[in-house]
Amino acid sequence: MENAVNQKSVISVRWIKTPSMMAKLNNDGSCRDEQCGGEGLIKDNQGNFIFAYSFNLGQGTSNMPSASTLLCGLKCCANNGINLVWGEIDSLVLIKCIKRDWKPPWKIAKEIQQNQNLVEENGFNISHCFREANKLADKLASFSASCRITCIIIIIFFNGKGRR
Q: Which of 15, 54, 141, 147 is the most buried (most CB within 10 A)?
């Protein structure tokens, strides 16, 4: 075999602004020692917080917290009149299942169906992002999995100039 060359490619990973008037939903789920938690945050197109949530989900498997956390975020958007939403999550499995490219694992089939319904009924956009572009949600999800508190919801509405 000739001299093998290991080629590395560089990918730019960063938080991407949404188009004007569109909100960005970043969320993540985490499992540690079979204890799961999830966290999400919604920002406007300038990166200003609209709201955030975090909760302990108890025992589960790796895909369950991501599906449940995305569902919570999409419901919060739909229920609060945030109609233009771009959801990002670092679970490619979840994205492929929601977009109907892959059949969902049976343990999260119900959550996948609910996510699909919300995305389709509200015209939400969802896409995969690398974990490095989702650092805040990733860190908070790790914390929520180890937290003994069932649910923390922080709702902050900003109009860019202060609280509304």
A: 141
